Amino acid sequence: MLFSELIQKKAHEKGSRIVLALDLEARERRLLLDRSLKILRSVKEYICAVKVNRQLVLPLGLYEGVQTIVREAHRLRIPTIMDAKLNDVGHTNEAIARHYFKTGFDAIIASPFIGWKGGLEPVFNLSKKMSRGILLLTYMSHEGAAEGYGQTVIDASTGARSYQFEVFAKKAIDWNADGIIVGATHPERIAEIRKLVGDKLAIYSPGVGVQGGEVARSLNAGATYLIVGRSIFSSKNPEGAAKEICNAANQTAPA
Q1: Which of 42, 102, 155, 206 can pair with 239 through a Cys bridge, CB separation 3.0 to 4.6 Å?
Q2: Intra-chain end-to-end CA distance of the chain, in Å
């Protein structure tokens, strides 16, 4: 089953379009692992996937700690996404992706800035062999995103001008990506990109809550899934926060 089909099925089963960003930090390794597992278990009914970033990989270790979280997520029947933001030469990207896929991650996030040949081609080939997914960064959620993703670029062969995010959205279709990342803090970009990709790609939107992204505005603009981290795991009641955000998303009609 393709990752795009897996998460769509899980979202339907759970009645949720929320991806938990499990980006916790803690000084003590054991506390970090225990808290991550506790939060994951507490919100399991209100999320359709969980995303892990290097905030967990670096202190916990990939096979020693993070794999425990991945296995627990799978025990709970929750798909897993590794937010690796792959952005290196091809053989290095492939080696990194192989480790994450061996750990059990169902999908990985990569940067299209590095291009196809000698960049992401080996990772896409590997993902097909291992039946895993790839999500491409198309417009990030932070304030400085426009400096890269919003710059105007010129096609060397045709002289045509486009925004960088437009180029990336088209590449995601050409490369058969499983979805794209577009920040919830930029609903106008979500809407523009949705027009470009139509119903060919799911849009994952991080930045809801603490960063300023809004549930309804993001979904109305065309987001498929919302990636939410601090608004859930920093809450005194993560389960209640996840339920509230999930309900708010369900009250917004799909774009």
Answers
A1: 42
A2: 25
Question: How many CA atoms, within 13 angstroms, populate the side-chain half-sphere of residue 255?
Answer: 24
Give the active site residue among 9, 14, 85, 170.
85
Is 51 annotated in the active site?
no
* CB-based contacts of 98, cutoff 8 Å, min separation 6: 126
The residue assigned the tokens 């996030």 is: 109
Residues 66-74: contacts with CB within 8 Å, 24+ apart? 66/103, 67/103, 67/104, 68/33, 68/37, 69/22, 69/33, 69/36, 69/37, 69/40, 70/103, 70/104, 70/105, 71/104, 72/37, 72/40, 72/41, 73/40, 74/104
**For residue 212, is pLDDT > 90?**
no
* Owner of token pair 């991806």: 19
Q: b or e along 70-86 (b: 16 or more beta carbons within 10 Å of the residue's beta carbon)? A: bebbeeeebbbbbbbeb
183 and 189 in contact (C-beta within 8 Å)?
Answer: yes
Task: Retrieve residue 125's tokens.
Answer: 């080939």
pLDDT in tens, 13-65: 999 999 999 999 877 788 999 999 999 999 999 999 999 999 999 999 999 89
Domains of the chain (ranges, CATH numbers): 3-250 (3.20.20.70)
pLDDT digits (tens, 9 = 90+) for 82-100: 999 999 999 999 999 999 9
Enclosing H/E stretch for 94 = helix 90-103
DSSP assignment letter at 134: E
Q: Count the helix, strand and coil residues of the chain and give each as a percent rounded to the nearest 5.
A: 50, 20, 30
Separation between Cα atoms, residue 226 and residue 121, nearest integer Å: 27
